[in-house]
Design brief:
The complex is a heterodimer of chains A (112) and B (117). Helix content of chain A is 0%, strand content 54%. Chain A contains no helices and eleven strands. In chain A, strands 2, 4, 5, 6, 9, 10 and 11 form a seven-stranded mixed β-sheet that branches. The N and C termini of chain A lie far apart (36 Å). The mean pLDDT of chain A is 93. In chain B, strands 2, 5, 6, 10, 11 and 12 form a six-stranded mixed β-sheet that branches. A four-stranded antiparallel β-sheet of chain B has the order 3-9-8-7, with no helix packed on it. The N and C termini of chain B lie far apart (41 Å). At the A-B interface, strand 5, strand 9 and strand 10 of A face strand 5, strand 6 and strand 11 of B.
């Protein structure tokens, strides 16, 4: 299975600022996904990132708030823009291999 | 739409006890079913899967059987260890509506398991 790393592993940010989260995979993959896991909650899909095309956002998530880049087949970034305390969550990227998805370790974001 | 319902947690068991975490799903058609585990401070790991009715997924002593008639995929382990303490997520997937070949996961809310010595 793919090995996925994320940076940063955690951060504490001030309200109104932005944070860019990086996701690196050790093999080339077509589909990458970004999820949000709010405290004590399940995972919610933010968007699907396919290399060479615009990301596809799920209902309730917009590009202005969560811009995504996918410059190549092993890397993606998610930016959380103009943060508020409600954005405090764990953000996870995942990749698809066949019907399975594998997840990175997550980025724990706290907004004060 | 598709949905996954898991038993409410937290679940606390003594070491070597029998574990069952119930999971039922609602879906049109026949999804693939998964159990993921999230250890404290870590990301999600795929624990096991089943892709068709009556399939049994198994890994690390955990088992789950795809029951189409009851739309269930209950997770079981005969003898839990302290190291099994984690949050367990049941999930299903279908090919994405976009037709781009991706499979979208729908997760349950998770069940926190604590195993005490």
């Amino acid at each position: 299975s793919a090995v996925i790393s994320q940076k940063p592993s955690r951060d504490i940010c001030q309200r109104g600022t932005s944070l860019t989260i990086q996701c690196q995979v050790d093999s080339q993959v077509t589909m990458m996904f970004w999820y949000r896991q709010q405290p004590g909650q399940s995972l919610t899909l933010i968007a699907t990132a396919n290399q060479g095309s615009e990301a596809t956002y799920e209902s309730g998530f917009v590009i202005d708030k969560f811009p995504i880049s996918r410059p190549n087949l092993t890397f993606s970034t998610l930016t959380v823009s103009n943060m508020s305390p409600e954005d405090s969550s764990i953000y996870l990227c995942s990749v698809e291999e066949g019907i399975e998805q594998y997840f990175g370790p997550g980025t724990r974001l706290t907004v004060t | 739409g598709n949905s996954v319902t898991q038993m409410e947690g937290p679940v606390t068991l003594s070491e070597e006890a029998f574990l069952t975490i119930n999971c039922t799903y609602t879906a049109t058609g026949y999804p693939s079913l998964f159990w993921y585990v999230q250890y404290p401070g870590e990301g999600l790991q795929l624990l096991l899967k089943a892709t068709k009715a009556d399939d049994k997924g198994s890994n690390k002593g955990f088992e789950a059987t795809y029951r189409k008639e009851t739309t269930s995929f209950h997770l079981e382990k005969g003898s839990v260890q302290v190291s099994d303490s984690a949050v367990y997520f049941c999930a299903l997937s279908f090919p994405a509506y976009s037709g781009a070949g991706s499979y979208q996961l729908t997760f349950g809310k998770g069940t926190k398991l604590s195993v005490i010595p």
